[in-house]
TrEMBL record:
The gene is raiA. The keyword Membrane does not apply. It comes from the Bacteria. This is Ribosome-associated translation inhibitor RaiA. Keywords: Plasmid. InterPro entries: RHF-like (IPR036567), RHF/RaiA (IPR003489).
Amino acid sequence: MQIDIQTRDITLTEELRAHVERRLQFALSRFQDQGLLITVCLSGVSGGSGEDRHCYLQIRAEGCPDVSIEDTEADLYIAINRAVERAGRMLERQWQCAHNHLNGPFQ
């Protein structure tokens, strides 16, 4: 699993980096053998209710279409958690579809 974390208008602290990596490892550990390439973009977003935090994930895995997920929350850690959870579920669905397609419906 290769993780690239990029930021815009946010300081990438060691605590924040560790949180992102820990959440990704936990949610995507099942797919580690799939050669995952993960790009995480964290940024601040000005909106009507003040400054929100944005998390964008792009995951590339062998044998599956790319997964792109984004979430915006007031708390960056919540945005990261929600985006990672959704990405894990989407990757699981794609893996199941690809696996079922290869094996056929009755095997």
